[in-house]
Write a structure and sequence with these properties.
about 10% strand, Endonuclease, Chain A, alpha+beta, 7 helices, binds zinc ion, four-stranded mixed β-sheet, about 50% helix
Length: about 160
């Protein structure tokens, strides 16, 4: 059978399928490192193997691809036309597992932050949302640049529980 993807495209697809060390996750990790935060990766002993964990802060972070985890956004709404029932079942299953993992983590006292691929484009916003959650002091010039409007949209898109 002929591969529908070029070799380059194929390897990027396979990277995404593998689910680890995807570029959205690397982006978040780079940001956390820049913020001076220390973290651990893929803790297998925790529900859902959170992508990034800060044990001291009891914070688990999932970095979700919009398609695979069925985000409520244009990318997440795009189901392939072929094999639609298959994809709907698969993505629906992922969503259910995400909800269960989140609940299990929260039940054992973890705070859970879910970051969506589509929200990572605005790095400033991402940094603010992480800082807000961890109650870190923000750089003053940085805070001044951000409008109240963007602060509101952060609160509405970042889902975290104390
Ligand atoms: Zn999305």
């Amino acid at each position: 059978m002929t591969d529908v993807f070029t070799p380059d495209k194929r390897s990027s697809v396979m990277r995404r399928v593998k689910g680890k060390d995807t570029s959205p996750e690397l982006k978040v990790r780079r940001l956390l490192t820049r913020m001076g935060l220390r973290y651990r990766l893929h803790r297998k002993d925790l529900p859902g193997k959170p992508d990034i964990v800060m044990p001291g802060r009891r914070l688990a972070i999932f970095v979700h691809g919009c398609f695979w985890h069925g985000h409520d956004c244009p990318r997440g709404a795009r189901t392939p036309k072929a094999n639609r029932p298959y994809w709907e079942a698969k993505i629906g299953g992922n969503r259910e597992r995400d909800i269960a993992h989140r609940a299990a983590l929260q039940a054992s006292g973890w705070r859970v932050l879910t970051l969506w691929e589509c929200e990572l484009k605005d790095e400033e916003r991402l940094e603010r949302s992480v800082a807000d959650l961890l109650s870190l002091p923000l750089d003053r010039s940085y805070a001044a640049r951000s409008s109240p409007r963007s602060a509101r949209s952060i609160r509405s898109t970042v889902s975290a529980t104390p």
